[in-house]
Structure formats: structure tokens, C-alpha cells
Amino acid sequence: xxxxxxxxxxxxxxxxxxxxxxxxxxxxxxxxxxxxxxxxxxxxxxxxxxxxxxxxxxxxxxxxxxxxxxxxxxxxxxxxx
Length: 81
Description:
CATH superfamily: lambda repressor-like DNA-binding domains
CATH topology: 434 Repressor (Amino-terminal Domain)
Number of helices: 4
CATH class: Mainly Alpha
Structural class: mainly alpha
Low-confidence stretches: none
Mean pLDDT: 80
Largest sheet: none
Radius of gyration: 14 Å
Distance between the termini: 42 Å
Helix content: 40-55%
Number of strands: 0
Shape: globular
């Protein structure tokens, strides 16, 4: 038996995915193709992503494969932030 996706579970899944990728809301939103305020509303449970948006979020690759450019890179150790 499968558990239905309730708005609460969708909200928690979005937060868990973002944290697993180690991204800020803004970075996660940019990778998902939405604005940071939209991502904030999803995480707060005020708005629920539609099926396509949710599918796109859950299929984002690990952070190293995202086309996000860090703001700073340490020339000695190549740590990016």
C-alpha cells in the first residue's frame, strides 16, 4: 500500500531534497527554474508545486552536476561557496 502525497509530505520532500543537495533556497529555486519566493512558499506549505514542478525537483542531480556557479572559489583548496 502506498502513502498518498499530502501537501505536508510534499512540503517535507521539497525541504529534504534541498538539504540533501546542500543548497540554499535561492540556489535550489534557480536550479528548479522558479523564484526564491515560490520555493519559500512551497517549503512553508502555503503553495503546493504541481506534478511537473515536483517531478523536476525530485529529479535534480547531485549538487556537483548542477550548473550553479559559486560566488567564490579558494585558489589554494578549490573550496567553493
